[in-house]
């Protein structure tokens, strides 16, 4: 299953709106005879790739799959039926499929006399498929908020200069995050200050994410902005009552306080466009709006060994007024990236908050 999970990760950034899935097939004597992963949306599922490689050696063998084999016909056929027809005797999977259109594969396999073992390395598989699982369960994209800051939490100096706080190694790592996301989101402040490009660079074969600028008043993105080139698709989100002539614009309702766009409406619009994962690269104001809306699932912070003492903080008003209401995080990884420290954390569960 560890190998199947590693295979599944190869599909990050290229399978949306489908999940990432890996599959390893052992023959009746326990030797690997097939392996594969879901490589792209609309293409063969992981089980099909692995079965094709295994051929007749799959008969009587075991299939290890990171997600319960699907039970429906979409752009491809049901994987549960393919496993049955191949003569597989045992199926081990990590996570049950929460999609009501595809669930039931395990029951179909059992009805055909196949031994089914669920829940193997379920936590690891949940983490690897967090974006897709979140989108199915909550009906909105998974949101990863990324920022770079000094060790004292500043994202820019007092005079607003910010290039470059983080190292070249950290900036290259951000392009990996972009390549794994369906959409990259920034706000009007970032658009004005940096004229960002937001496309993936330096990663061969990367699928370019949708570039999204939250420009409530339709004043930040001007004709000729770098984000409007043809390197990647672009969407400009503006208020319903804003005046704009940009063909890339989508109109959305304002937030309840009127200071920006409704974050739930923005995420719903992106979900309707097939976006299942969002990389939030916006500044402190937009990040605060997402946190206030309960719409941040994961945080990746690049902390540089730099002190400024003044300047904007990484997070602005997030609707938190007392320590007991703080958004608690579970740190899942700390690693050196060049001279910087990359900290990855997920929103704490109820159980961890009570510890």
Q: What about the largest sheet?
A: 9 strands, mixed
Instruction: Let me know the number of strands.
Output: 14
Low-confidence stretches: 350-355
Query: Numbering strands along the chain, what is their spatial order in the largest sheet?
Result: 10-9-8-7-11-6-12-14-13
Please give the radius of gyration in angstroms: 22 Å
How far the N terminus sits from the C terminus, by CA atoms, comes to 31 Å
Topology pattern, helix = H, strand = E? HEEHEHEHEHHEHEHEEEHEHEEEH
State the shape. elongated
What is the helix fraction of residues, given as a range?
25-40%
By DSSP (H or I, 4+ residues per run), the number of helices equals 11
Oligomeric grouping of the chains: single chain
Roughly what is the average pLDDT, rounded to an integer? 92
Portion in strands: 15-25%
Structural class: alpha/beta
Task: Write a brief caption for the model.
This protein has 355 residues and is of the alpha/beta class. It is 25% helix and 23% strand. It has 11 helices and 14 strands.
């Amino acid at each position: 299953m560890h190998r199947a999970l590693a295979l599944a990760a190869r599909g990050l950034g290229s399978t949306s709106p489908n999940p990432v899935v890996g599959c390893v097939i052992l023959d009746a004597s326990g030797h690997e005879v097939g392996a594969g992963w879901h490589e792209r949306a609309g293409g063969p599922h992981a089980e099909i790739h692995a079965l094709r490689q295994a051929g007749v050696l799959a008969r009587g063998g075991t299939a290890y799959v990171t997600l319960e084999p699907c039970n429906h016909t979409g752009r491809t056929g049901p994987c549960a039926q393919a496993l049955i027809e191949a003569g597989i005797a045992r199926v081990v999977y990590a996570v049950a499929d929460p999609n009501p259109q595809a669930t039931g594969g395990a029951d179909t396999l059992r009805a055909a006399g196949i031994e089914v073992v669920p829940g193997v390395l379920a936590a690891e598989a949940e983490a690897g498929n967090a974006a897709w699982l979140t989108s199915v369960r909550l009906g909105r994209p998974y949101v990863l908020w990324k920022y770079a800051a000094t060790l004292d939490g500043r994202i820019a100096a007092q005079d607003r200069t910010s290039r470059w706080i983080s190292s070249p190694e950290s900036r290259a790592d951000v392009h990996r995050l972009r390549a794994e996301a369906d959409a990259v989101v920034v706000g009007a402040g970032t658009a004005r200050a940096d004229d960002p490009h937001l496309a993936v660079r330096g990663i061969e074969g990367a699928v370019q994410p949708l570039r999204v600028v939250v420009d409530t008043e339709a004043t930040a993105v001007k004709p000729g902005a770098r984000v409007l080139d043809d390197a990647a698709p672009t969407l400009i989100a503006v208020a319903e009552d804003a005046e704009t002539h940009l063909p890339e614009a989508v109109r959305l309702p304002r937030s309840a306080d009127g200071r920006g766009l409704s974050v739930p409406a923005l995420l719903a619009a992106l979900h309707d466009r097939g976006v299942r994962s969002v990389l939030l690269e916006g500044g402190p104001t937009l990040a605060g709006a997402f946190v206030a809306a309960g719409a941040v699932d994961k945080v990746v912070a690049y902390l540089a060994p730099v002190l400024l003492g003044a300047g904007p903080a990484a997070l602005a008003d997030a609707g938190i007024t007392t320590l007991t209401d703080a958004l608690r995080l579970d740190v899942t990884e700390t690693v050196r990236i060049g001279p910087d420290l990359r900290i990855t954390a997920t929103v704490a569960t109820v159980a961890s908050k009570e510890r």
